[in-house]
């Protein structure tokens, strides 16, 4: 069986964001989950320009079932799956998992498949026609993460995440971001 993720042993359970659901989120989580701009830019504003990207996983794979459903993809469609950790001098701040279908890569002129250690937000927020289509929220228990991801990101308790469908020229991509304790207490 091929690995679908460095971060997860099993797919997180996501809940569709509904109007009023922010009342159930802790204040610090609300602030990050409902950020309308680039989280990378916000991290740079808060921590300075020493935000770095560690690539954890960058492979063509079939996404998890709920990811395929969210992107309306056929069962065996391969997508570029990219998982990264944003950190400052090795201090984990944010984990991210991005699912990019081939059609989206094509309309973005392949910029999305050759990011290297550039943050995704730096690229997608430069597209004038970027649309936010949908958002889900999740509280992920430590047991859902792989041992390696728990170690690398110092995960000891539940972690809040948001999952957003973005579209560039009506072509979707899925970006899941997980807020590590360091940024929630900052």
The backbone outline, from C-alpha atoms, is globular
Which CATH-level-2 architecture? 3-Layer(aba) Sandwich
pLDDT average, as an integer? 91
Question: Multimeric state of these chains?
Answer: single chain
CATH superfamily: Chorismate lyase-like
* Number of strand elements: 7
Rg for CA atoms: 15 Å
The SSE string, one letter per element, is EHHEHEEHHEHEEH
Low-confidence stretches: none
Number of domains: 1
* Count of DSSP-assigned helices: 7
Short description:
This protein is an alpha+beta fold and 186 residues long. It has helices spanning 27-33, 39-47, 65-71, 102-107, 120-124, 147-152, 181-184; strands at 15-16, 51-61, 79-88, 91-101, 131-140, 159-168, 171-179.
How does this structure look, described?
The chain is 24% helix and 34% strand. By secondary structure, the chain is of the alpha+beta class. It has a single domain (17-184), classed as 3-Layer(aba) Sandwich (Chorismate lyase). The protein has a 7-stranded antiparallel sheet with strand order 1-5-6-7-4-3-2. Strand 3 and strand 4 (91-101) form a beta hairpin. The termini are far apart. The model has no long low-confidence stretch (mean pLDDT 91).
């Amino acid at each position: 069986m091929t690995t679908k993720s460095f971060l997860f042993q099993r797919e997180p359970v996501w809940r569709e964001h509904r109007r009023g659901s922010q009342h159930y989120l802790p204040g610090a989580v609300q602030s990050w989950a409902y950020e309308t701009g680039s989280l990378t830019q916000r991290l740079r504003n808060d921590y300075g320009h020493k935000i770095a990207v560690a690539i954890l996983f960058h492979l063509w794979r079939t996404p998890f079932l709920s990811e395929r459903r969210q992107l309306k993809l056929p069962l065996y469609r391969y997508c570029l799956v990219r998982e990264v950790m944003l950190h400052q001098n090795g201090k984990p701040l944010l984990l991210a998992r991005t699912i990019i279908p081939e059609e989206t890569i094509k309309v973005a002129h392949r910029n999305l498949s050759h990011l290297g250690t550039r943050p995704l937000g730096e690229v997608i927020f430069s597209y004038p026609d970027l649309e936010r289509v949908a958002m889900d929220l999740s509280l992920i228990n430590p047991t859902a993460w792989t041992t390696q991801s728990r170690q690398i990101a110092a995960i000891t308790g539940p972690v809040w995440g948001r999952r957003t469908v973005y579209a560039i020229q009506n072509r979707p991509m899925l970006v899941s971001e997980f807020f590590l304790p360091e940024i929630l207490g900052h």
